[in-house]
């Protein structure tokens, strides 16, 4: 028999108390001390602890995710260095754009790209999204984001939402909101969720959340999904809750799995917003008594889909890189240095859409200078440009784009 929501069990049997007791007290159940606000008609109650039943389906899903993470790491590690750097950059861009877009915050790839480039430009420190991109770029270091104090949550929020929050959504508590807010469905006008009404209650719930995320007894993927649910249930800000919660989720998954699995989660949520919000609605229904099993499965299914996308993408790009290298290896009248310059340019552009994100000439010179004189490298870049094989896209700093059609027709 299919495993059903407690709400459906109640409709079938007139009651779900017996089934609830069986689930909450079953062997291996993950029972927390987090009590979410659950919708009961037009009001909320916090009578039940959040819990998960470790179904076989869930255990297999967790195993598959960890196996796919290992595949992703192996594929990424076999990429040439320039290709790997460009792939990471492209995934970071998508994470920032999608995380903002879920909440209706318009962000372009050009803006994120400019902010990323500004990270290393001391003259350019006023770009929109600079702080957000820096925070996401910290994921690359794989540092442990230790949250043992609620102040850290506020610090993350301030960085992610810098310059993006309207004045009427400014925080009025010491750290968080201190007034009532409702989450309303924009289409139906129906109240979907009523979170805690003041900062005192928010702080109490966040304290439970912090205790849970630092507990070592729950499997980490279940912990990640449950913690994400409860954080959004608390809704500590007037605006920016999702951006903050998904960043914390992304950062955690990046450390426990791999960078790319962590970065892809916002993209998959954005592509499946209905499934995402329905998952919150299911767990937030009072009749389901705070069972988080279905929410965890839904979030992990999205993560697995994202991993499948990454694996497919990396396999395709690996094949392109191999085919291109074979092509230039057999190209007549081409020197080894020219081949290496062209391969670096191809690595740079095969993973990105914006020409301005390509490798800089001075980076090419630095990479190849161990084997060739710098002047010779620069002269060969000019020669390839004069032959129409590459085109200059920017001058300060100088970048070039590979003209594939010209190369293939020669």
What does this structure look like?
It comes from Streptococcus vestibularis. This is Fic family protein. Pfam families: Fic. There is one protein chain. This protein is mainly alpha-helical. The chain folds into two domains: 6-312, Orthogonal Bundle (Fic-like fold); 334-408, Arc Repressor Mutant, subunit A, CATH 1.10.10.10. Helices cover 58% and strands 6% of the residues. The chain contains 17 helices and eight strands. It has helices at 6-13, 17-24, 56-77, 81-102, 109-118, 130-137, 150-160, 199-213, 220-234, 241-256, 259-271, 273-283, 293-329, 336-350, 361-368, 374-386, 404-409; strands spanning 30-31, 38-40, 43-45, 51-52, 183-184, 191-193, 390-395, 398-402. Strands 1-4 form a two-stranded antiparallel sheet. The N and C termini lie far apart (64 Å). The mean pLDDT is 92.
List keywords for this structure.
single chain; 410 residues; mainly alpha; 58% helix
Strand-helix topology:
Blueprint: H1 6-13, H2 17-24, E1 30-31, E2 38-40, E3 43-45, E4 51-52, H3 56-77, H4 81-102, H5 109-118, H6 130-137, H7 150-160, E5 183-184, E6 191-193, H8 199-213, H9 220-234, H10 241-256, H11 259-271, H12 273-283, H13 293-329, H14 336-350, H15 361-368, H16 374-386, E7 390-395, E8 398-402, H17 404-409
Antiparallel strand pairs: 1-4, 2-3, 5-6, 7-8
Helix pairs in contact: 3-13, 4-6, 4-11, 4-14, 5-6, 8-9, 9-10, 9-13, 10-11, 11-13, 12-13, 13-14, 15-16
Protein name: Fic family protein
Pfam families: Fic
């Amino acid at each position: 028999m299919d495993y059903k929501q407690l709400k459906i069990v109640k409709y079938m049997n007139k009651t779900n108390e017996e089934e609830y007791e069986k689930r909450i007290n079953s062997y291996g159940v993950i029972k927390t001390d987090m009590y979410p606000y659950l919708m009961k008609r037009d009001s909320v109650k916090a009578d039940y602890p959040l819990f998960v039943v470790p179904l076989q389906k869930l255990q297999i899903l967790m195993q598959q995710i960890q196996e796919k993470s290992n595949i992703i790491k192996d594929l990424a590690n076999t990429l040439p260095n320039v290709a790997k750097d460009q792939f990471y950059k492209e995934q970071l861009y998508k994470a920032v754009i999608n995380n903002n877009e879920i909440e209706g915050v318009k962000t372009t790839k050009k803006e994120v790209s400019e902010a990323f480039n500004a990270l290393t430009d001391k003259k350019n420190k006023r770009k929109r999204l600079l702080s957000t991109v820096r925070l996401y770029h910290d994921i690359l270091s794989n540092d442990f984001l230790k949250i043992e104090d609620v102040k850290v949550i506020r610090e993350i929020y301030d960085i992610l939402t810098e310059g993006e929050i309207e004045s009427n959504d400014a925080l009025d508590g010491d750290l968080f909101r201190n007034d009532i807010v409702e989450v309303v469905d924009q289409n139906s006008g129906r109240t979907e969720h009523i979170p805690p009404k003041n900062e005192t209650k928010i702080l109490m719930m966040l304290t439970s959340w912090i205790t849970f995320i630092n507990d070592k007894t729950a499997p980490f993927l279940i912990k990640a999904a449950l913690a994400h649910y409860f954080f959004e249930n608390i809704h500590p800000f007037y605006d920016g809750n999702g951006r903050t919660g998904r960043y914390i989720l992304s950062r955690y998954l990046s450390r426990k799995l791999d960078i790319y699995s962590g970065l892809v989660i916002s993209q998959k949520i954005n592509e499946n917003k209905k499934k995402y919000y329905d998952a919150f609605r299911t767990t937030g229904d009072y009749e389901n008594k705070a069972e988080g099993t279905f929410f965890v499965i839904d979030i992990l299914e999205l993560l697995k889909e994202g991993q499948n996308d990454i694996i497919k993408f990396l396999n395709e790009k690996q094949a392109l890189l191999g085919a291109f290298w074979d092509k230039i290896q057999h190209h007549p009248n081409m020197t080894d240095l020219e081949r290496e310059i062209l391969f670096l340019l191809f690595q740079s552009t095969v993973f990105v859409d914006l020409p301005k994100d390509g490798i800089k000439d001075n980076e090419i010179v630095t990479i190849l200078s161990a084997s060739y004189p710098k002047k010779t490298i620069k002269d060969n870049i000019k020669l390839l440009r004069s032959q129409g094989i590459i085109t200059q896209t920017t001058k300060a700093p100088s970048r070039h784009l590979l003209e594939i059609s010209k190369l293939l027709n020669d």
